[in-house]
């Protein structure tokens, strides 16, 4: 471990190349996570509902959907995707954005998410260097990318990721990795409560539900990673990010899509994680 760190201290380029290539592959995996997690959840809900409503019937024996099974196929012609068709970015370019068998177009979103993952990961490397903070910073980045796109697609923020992220934040900060243990605990509590209060006020005033519980859990997780002092910045930044992306999407799609707040919290959280202290210093004027 020590040899690794000192090697990368002497050869920062090697670190950038290693993390760059590795995170392209992670990006490819995140595409699978983003596509499959909502489907896995739907399958679980369906089975739960069936079990509750018709306990006498056997559960329909459908193929269980997990992150690794069944193998990836083309959504159009169901031809299995070979390993050499699954190389991040390069395969998409080599296939010119089409399925190798049926020539059905493959969304440009796949290589873009791989590139985004690599770029965000390299920024983490540039900020933290070869440290434990870099390692866990990469994990945070990857989970936030998955959550952003899952929520954007489906208006869902799966507990399995938000709550795991929160637990991980509390665990690493019990050793003071990014903030003190006390600050992590209060970040978690206040992160959850502040959106919960907004949610309740909104419900009392308008009689509608304006956001999901997933949003509270995500902000709680970010609080656990960065402490309560970052929360006002995250909330402010998320409205800013939301306004900018909202305007862009309105121009592109010209139609009213369901509103998800989670992606903006995730993006704002990541910006605060990287540049939060600098932004606060500039803002507070010292
Ligand atoms: Zn195909």
TrEMBL record:
One record GO biological process: methylation
UniProt cross-references to InterPro entries, sorted A to Z: Peptidase_A24A_bac (IPR014032), Prepilin_IV_endopep_pep (IPR000045), Prepilin_pept_A24_N (IPR010627), Prepilin_peptidase/N-MTase (IPR050882)
Any one Pfam family match given in the protein's UniProt record, by short name: A24_N_bact
GO molecular-function terms, A-Z: aspartic-type endopeptidase activity; methyltransferase activity
Domain called Prepilin peptidase A24 N-terminal: residue spans: 21-126
Membrane topology, as annotated: Multi-pass membrane protein
Enzyme Commission number(s) from the entry: 2.1.1.-, 3.4.23.43
Keyword Hydrolase: yes
The keyword Zinc is annotated on this UniProt entry: no
GO CC annotation terms, alphabetical: plasma membrane
TM ranges: 14-35, 110-128, 161-178, 184-202, 222-252, 258-276
Role: Plays an essential role in type IV pili and type II pseudopili formation by proteolytically removing the leader sequence from substrate proteins and subsequently monomethylating the alpha-amino group of the newly exposed N-terminal phenylalanine.
Designated name of the protein: Prepilin leader peptidase/N-methyltransferase
Source organism of this protein record: Acinetobacter bouvetii
């Amino acid at each position: 471990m020590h040899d690794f760190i000192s090697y990368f201290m002497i050869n920062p380029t090697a670190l950038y190349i290693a993390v760059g290539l590795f995170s392209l592959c992670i990006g490819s995996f995140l595409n699978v996570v983003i596509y499959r997690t909502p489907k896995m959840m739907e399958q679980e809900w369906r089975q739960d509902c069936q079990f509750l409503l018709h306990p006498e019937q056997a559960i329909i024996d459908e193929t269980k959907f997990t992150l690794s099974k069944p193998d990836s196929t083309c959504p159009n012609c169901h031809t299995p995707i070979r390993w050499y068709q699954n190389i991040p970015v390069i395969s998409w370019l080599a296939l010119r954005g089409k399925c190798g068998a049926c020539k059905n177009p493959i969304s440009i979103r796949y290589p873009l998410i791989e590139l985004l993952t690599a770029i965000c990961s390299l920024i983490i490397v540039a900020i933290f260097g070869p440290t434990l903070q870099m390692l866990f910073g990469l994990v945070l980045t990857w989970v936030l990318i998955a959550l952003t796109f899952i929520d954007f697609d489906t208006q869902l923020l799966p507990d399995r990721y938000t709550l795991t992220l929160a637990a991980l934040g509390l665990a690493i900060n019990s050793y003071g990795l990014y903030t003190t243990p006390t600050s992590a605990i209060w970040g978690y509590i206040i992160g959850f409560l502040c959106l919960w209060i907004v949610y309740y006020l909104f419900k009392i005033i308008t009689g509608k539900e304006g956001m999901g519980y997933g949003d509270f859990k995500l902000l709680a997780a970010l609080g656990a990673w960065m402490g309560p002092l970052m929360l006002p910045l995250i909330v402010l930044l998320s409205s800013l990010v939301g306004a900018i992306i909202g305007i862009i999407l309105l121009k592109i799609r010209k139609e009213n899509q369901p509103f998800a707040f989670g992606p903006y919290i995730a993006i704002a959280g990541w910006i605060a994680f990287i540049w939060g202290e600098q932004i606060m210093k500039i803002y507070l004027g010292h």
